[in-house]
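Components:
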Amino acid sequence: MRNRATRHFEEELEHLKERLLVMAGAAEEQVRVAVQSLVDRDDAMAEQVLTGDDPINQLHLEIDERCFQLLALHQPVATDLRMVVSGVKINSDLERIGDFAVNIAEATLGYVEHPAVKPLIDIPRMAGIAQGMLRDALNAFVRQDMTLAQDVLDRDDSLDKLKDQVFRELLGFMLANPAVTEQALDLILISRHLERIGDHATNIAEEAIFIVSGLDVRHHGREGGTPHDA
Amino acid sequence: MRNRATRHFEEELEHLKERLLVMAGAAEEQVRVAVQSLVDRDDAMAEQVLTGDDPINQLHLEIDERCFQLLALHQPVATDLRMVVSGVKINSDLERIGDFAVNIAEATLGYVEHPAVKPLIDIPRMAGIAQGMLRDALNAFVRQDMTLAQDVLDRDDSLDKLKDQVFRELLGFMLANPAVTEQALDLILISRHLERIGDHATNIAEEAIFIVSGLDVRHHGREGGTPHDA
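Structure:
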């Protein structure tokens, strides 16, 4: 009986991980399409991102309920419990990432109404980094791969640097030519959304490290410094 | 034995709520001080917010562990389980609000290096609304007061409107006088941080409603619309 319950729990836990991977894939795709719509100045594509948030919201509710049922029916302890509690948190991070993709698409809809400020280089680069961080953070969680999780944490700095670079460059454009102020503001906000997607991927990687090592890497080395620019 | 365990669980749950209230109070105070430092152009006060984040981060770790222990030792079910799982989520929301206070203080440190753009009216107003939402959301959760929780949800719109108003006004300032671009950008970002604090207070209020009514008010009426501008 116990073995059967254990097996059932393990199956349910595997299923939870699969659903989190599905949700992460959907969120990553939303980010990709949102930034592609910006690069292509394609407002129909941006609109697609707005409706594309619904399935992610549905997954959010489903996974939340799945975690709750796992806790209620199986009352896991130790590492199993940590996995499920992390599932709850990661689910929130992924839902938030979906929201950022929508925020990017909305800013894009404003952006394409004006002439372009400049060719976009750093923002697509930021999107690529953020998508990679998200993908790898989830894989690190599912496979309990600490090396990969640490690698995600290491990439967050490059995203912060690019965000600062985008800001300085666009501020220069605005000062030189106030006519581009609105467009430049849209791009600054988009770069911040991408940076925050990286922050959420970082949260997920930190959860992965915590589960495997019991080591809480949150709030270390940040004292007096910059927390997630959330 | 069972009664004793139940009593012990209830005591622990009360203690969890108390700690969440302490953390919410600390986060609210950080927001208050950050915006006060902006209004007073007081960089020493802004610096104080940066160090003031440490106790909140410590509470974040402590409460997370407290929730984990409650789940591991008492294996609660039904409403008790929902309370603890909500505790995990609310803890994350509060930690994030603390980060936003730091972000506001950081923007303030940039802001005070330049002459003021304009007298600040809407931003202190936004701060007052966000602080009230945070306080009431926590009270709604602790007291299981659905009316108060619903009231928090209703206030989120006014924050969004003020954010848009701040944006339009400052954009006007920038276009009229590019010399204020940097300062105006700081204020735009600060207003967005405040709006996001309201979003997290909304999350907390939604959790409170969910616990009491079992009604999941997340992701309703937002389809195709604007998710939390997260």
